[in-house]
Amino acid sequence: MAQAADAPLRAQAWLAPQADLVRALTTAPPECLSPATGPEARLAVEVGRAAFRTPTVLGGQAARAGLTCETCHRSGRDNPAFLFPGVSGPPGTADVTSSLFSSHRGDGVDDPRPIPDLSGGPSGLKVAPADLPPFIHGLITQEFDGREPPAAVLAGLVAYVRALSPTACPRAGAVPVTVASLMSDARRAIAAADALAARGDRPAAGVMIAAARARLGLIDERYAALPRERRRLRAADARLAKVAQALREDSPDARRRLADWSADSVKLEAALTRREARSLFDPNHLAARLGRRLPGRAS
């Protein structure tokens, strides 16, 4: 799906037009993530968390449209504003047996269902914990026609979903989507990539780099009117592309380059933050770009 010419942010393409677009695009629900115990468990959750946020894991039309697990399950929750043509009925629903996304499970029947909150509760996912590995594997390879995921990525997704719990939900309401939050996601993904590279798991490490690059992409589109900052973002992305290539070639300096990128990303974040109020992270700027009026503002 190509991004509509009048849609400044790609995610607008799968949000209901009647939704509060500014709120939906500048805030997210809090993540209900239970702390993992032990380094192996923490790494598994971090791998899953990053994979959950990259189109690389999915395949076919979903990946081409830029969809991720997080698209339907924001912060691991649900997404009441989700509306994808040909897949949704009312907002917040999706047909998981749609032929649009799946050549395996498409049944020709239009039966969209409410998107479950993976953190649990009344609208939680009705899958037993023991059944999560085959369920998530089937979702990737059949429901979305994705490639076979690296074993560590599949295990990580299982660990991440299992770590989501209503008892871990912060009391605070929606949290702002910011440069800092997306750059933090990118650095977490790069840290996971380094840990996987250290044990020789280059395919899984490559997925983590793709996750970091996906976060940079989300920042980039919000700086479309700020060419200097956009050039810096694209230079950072190009560096990660080269690191991914170095990993595939088993280059001995790949991990050092990951560490260098992570360190340099702090300076990039600071530069972007200085101009954040002029970007589409700012609700006022986004509202003006969308032709919407924020509540409480004069027309």
Automatic annotation (TrEMBL):
Q: Highest taxon of the source?
A: Bacteria
Which InterPro entries does the UniProt record give?
Answer: Cyt_c-like_dom
Q: Which UniProt keywords apply?
A: Heme, Iron, Metal-binding
Q: Which residues form the Cytochrome c domain?
A: 43-165
| Stated name of the protein | Cytochrome c domain-containing protein
Species of origin reads: Phenylobacterium ferrooxidans
